[in-house]
Amino acid sequence: MAVEMLSYIERHSPVHRLTGVTKLICFMIWSSIAMLTYDTRVLTFLFLVSIGVFIISKVKLREVAFVLLFILFFLMINNLAIYVFSPQEGVRIYGTSHVLVDIGGGRYSLTLEQLFYQFNVTLKYFTVIPAAILFIVTTNPSEFAASLNRIGVSYRISYAVALALRYIPDIQRDFRNISMSQQARGIDMSRKEKLPKRIKNAASIIIPLILSSLDKIEIISNAMELRGFGKNKKRTWYRARPFQKIDIITIILFVLILIVSLYVTFHDGNRFYNPFS
Amino acid sequence: MKKPVIQFENFSFQYRSQTAPTLHEINLTIYEGEKVLIVGPSGSGKSTLGHCLNGLVPFSYKGEVSGSLKISGEDVKDLDIFSLSKKVGTVLQDPDGQFIGLTVAEDIAFALENDGAPQTHMFDKVAEVSKMVEMNEYLDSSLHQLSGGQKQRVSLAGVMVDDVEILLFDEPLANLDPATGKYAIELIDRIQNETNKTVVIIEHRLEDVLHCHVDRIIVVDDGRIIADMTPDELLASPVLEQCSIREPLYVKAAKYAGCELTPEMQPAHIESFQVDRCKAQLVDWFRKVDSPQPKAKTEAILELKDITFGYKPGRTTIQGVSFSIEKGEMVSIVGKNGAGKSTLSKLICGFEKPNAGQIYYRGQDISGDTIKERAARIGMVMQNPNQMISKQMIYDEVALGLVIRGVPDAEIKERVLKTLKICGLYPFRNWPISALSFGQKKRVTIASILVLEPEVLILDEPTAGQDFRHYTEIMEFLVELGRQGVIIIMITHDMHLMLEYTPRAIVIAGGEKIADDTAVNVLADSTIIEAANLKETSLFDLAQRAGIGEPKQFVDRFIAYDREVRQKWQ
């Protein structure tokens, strides 16, 4: 059910066994590479690896399908927007122009370069998204907080992030309940209603959601304070796990991937791989 | 001489946002190892008193303090909330909201983590404390999978890792089913006997707390302490009645029968209560009082046939449930936490679609109708009013459903004002909702559904968070609706409520209907009580001990009589 989306999924897999710190570092390396490079070879390699890791993690596609579709939808919009606002970006980057479909001989002519450029953009998404989803669903939120803290983030902020992640399912459940009960009062959120009215109607769901979430925040912050949260500069973590061999190996592996990717990307002085020259 | 651990001296407190003090001149001493119960109607200041003990007042809720409060000899002024939390461990109501960790072990260890305790020490301590509350086998379980009672044990363990001197329980029975509540009280008692900690319980379900021994009861009303005595003394006095706190039912019955209660009769517990002295009066009263008239049968309006439903394929939450409800009937749906009661109500409203079975309304199959179509006839009031309120002003909130339906303005005004009058909210009609208490907000949500004139009204725990007076008001008002033909379905854990107001009870256990009978018969059947985590009523015991042959009749007559007496309050 969609209610469970983006929350921790308990499994026994090598990916789950890694400590949160390792996963966080690896995820950061991964996204840096994906951000820096436009090299199709590197991106394809990363994409294949991330699919491999996904399989190893034993997380089922169906369990994250909703989020995945959601992101794909935005990816599509993004692609359209690139084409609308910058249809000759590929030509500018790769320096050549192979026109496939001539639309009035002007700006919106479809070129092979533009297609290739947008293919690379899409590929970038595809390398980061599975990694990001995987990171969230395989890291126990409390361990995640411990990891953030370990790499130097203040524990208050770490805990805030972890709590936010933890409350995602709760808020989804509340949202569902509230939306049902408001619909029962006659508030129509379906397509039968006109858009401006629907936006106005949405307020009658959002406001109770905010109010009841504020209630929750008050209760939890009282509960935390009553049990001494924020007393000391440092705190320890029940769930903290020491580094193991597999963690160190994984990190070394990722650093190697980073170095090789950057070398492949930049050795010709350009972060784009150019098949046209 | 016992050592005092809590000493209030001329203590007053005024919240910054309020114009009058919430607590006036409190003088109260609680000694080491004592078990004290604080009771009072809502808004009396009993929760504020608790907040003063754990430091939420004045550290989180700011305001003006005068007089002094000493906890184990130290003035609270010289402490901060963290050092106070090492002395006073608080178990808040609603364990769901206060869990911080994801698993049992983590949550128990939270206070230790904040102290920066080494990991090995945490493992040892968590193991030790979890054993004490019998949760040692669930250390790695996720908190969401636990039952209500288990959750409460975890929150208790979470404060006990700190070796606090005082355990403070803020409404520990709210949200627990009756049997679990009984167990919780026994657990508190056992922990206190084992550790000799000082225990302070804030709760308005007096009879349930008195299931175990309590040293003293403190009655708070209007920000002042109006009684501070042993349970026996308190129950023999008229104090509870004066500040509208519900007395234990057997005490009430004895008082109705005209018995003069004295502390020597030990009325604190039904087991210790010396019934012999008022036996004659009870039997006499039983003979004199009329038994209520059974209601005539009318037409069935709502009918469920073989409803089966599961949130996930392969796991059913509701299994083959059928029943039909007649016009103007008031029905309770009772059962354990998580038995499927709320799911059942969602199915009736169309929030969820059954996997099998039909729902009929006046003989017409409405299984395929949308939420909106059903909403024309069936209204649902959720447990938490904050989940329903979306407007700032009371009038607008109540009018919302009508405005959306496009009802003409003049008619909206007329219907809203009429509903506000029925719900006792008319004087507040131009108030912002934020100025209302929890109980008043609840009435606003009931009003906002009532204004739509549903023929079936479903209420989830309608009386949660209401003191006895408001409880009576809301319920009498629902009875009146019932008389006008509205079907009232209540989901509740409150056995008194079920017994008093709903002639019929449907008992759900494990997703199946295990009983559908009069409330009195349900509570007379020990197999049902056990299967559905209910609790027998002390009135049966009283009747039996007084030698009355028909205990069920006794209960019926008591309830009819009691309601008549209470109607005069209004």
UniProtKB/TrEMBL annotation, chain A:
<dbReference type="Pfam" id="PF02361">
    <property type="entry name" value="CbiQ"/>
</dbReference>
<dbReference type="GO" id="GO:0005886">
    <property type="term" value="C:plasma membrane"/>
</dbReference>
<keyword id="KW-0472">Membrane</keyword>
<feature type="transmembrane region" description="Helical">
    <location>
        <begin position="42"/>
        <end position="59"/>
    </location>
</feature>
<feature type="transmembrane region" description="Helical">
    <location>
        <begin position="248"/>
        <end position="266"/>
    </location>
</feature>
<feature type="transmembrane region" description="Helical">
    <location>
        <begin position="20"/>
        <end position="36"/>
    </location>
</feature>
<feature type="transmembrane region" description="Helical">
    <location>
        <begin position="66"/>
        <end position="85"/>
    </location>
</feature>
<dbReference type="InterPro" id="IPR003339">
    <property type="entry name" value="ABC/ECF_trnsptr_transmembrane"/>
</dbReference>
<keyword id="KW-0812">Transmembrane</keyword>
<protein>
    <submittedName>
        <fullName>Cobalt transport protein</fullName>
    </submittedName>
</protein>
<keyword id="KW-1133">Transmembrane helix</keyword>
<feature type="transmembrane region" description="Helical">
    <location>
        <begin position="115"/>
        <end position="137"/>
    </location>
</feature>
From TrEMBL, chain B:
<comment type="function">
    <text>Probably part of an ABC transporter complex. Responsible for energy coupling to the transport system.</text>
</comment>
<dbReference type="GO" id="GO:0042626">
    <property type="term" value="F:ATPase-coupled transmembrane transporter activity"/>
</dbReference>
<dbReference type="InterPro" id="IPR027417">
    <property type="entry name" value="P-loop_NTPase"/>
</dbReference>
<keyword id="KW-1278">Translocase</keyword>
<keyword id="KW-0472">Membrane</keyword>
<feature type="domain" description="ABC transporter">
    <location>
        <begin position="6"/>
        <end position="247"/>
    </location>
</feature>
<keyword id="KW-0677">Repeat</keyword>
<comment type="similarity">
    <text>Belongs to the ABC transporter superfamily.</text>
</comment>
<keyword id="KW-0067">ATP-binding</keyword>
<dbReference type="InterPro" id="IPR022216">
    <property type="entry name" value="ABC_Co_transporter"/>
</dbReference>
<dbReference type="InterPro" id="IPR015856">
    <property type="entry name" value="ABC_transpr_CbiO/EcfA_su"/>
</dbReference>
<dbReference type="GO" id="GO:0015087">
    <property type="term" value="F:cobalt ion transmembrane transporter activity"/>
</dbReference>
<dbReference type="InterPro" id="IPR050095">
    <property type="entry name" value="ECF_ABC_transporter_ATP-bd"/>
</dbReference>
<dbReference type="InterPro" id="IPR017871">
    <property type="entry name" value="ABC_transporter-like_CS"/>
</dbReference>
<dbReference type="InterPro" id="IPR003439">
    <property type="entry name" value="ABC_transporter-like_ATP-bd"/>
</dbReference>
<dbReference type="GO" id="GO:0043190">
    <property type="term" value="C:ATP-binding cassette (ABC) transporter complex"/>
</dbReference>
<dbReference type="Pfam" id="PF00005">
    <property type="entry name" value="ABC_tran"/>
</dbReference>
<feature type="domain" description="ABC transporter">
    <location>
        <begin position="302"/>
        <end position="535"/>
    </location>
</feature>
<dbReference type="InterPro" id="IPR003593">
    <property type="entry name" value="AAA+_ATPase"/>
</dbReference>
<keyword id="KW-0813">Transport</keyword>
<keyword id="KW-1003">Cell membrane</keyword>
<keyword id="KW-0547">Nucleotide-binding</keyword>
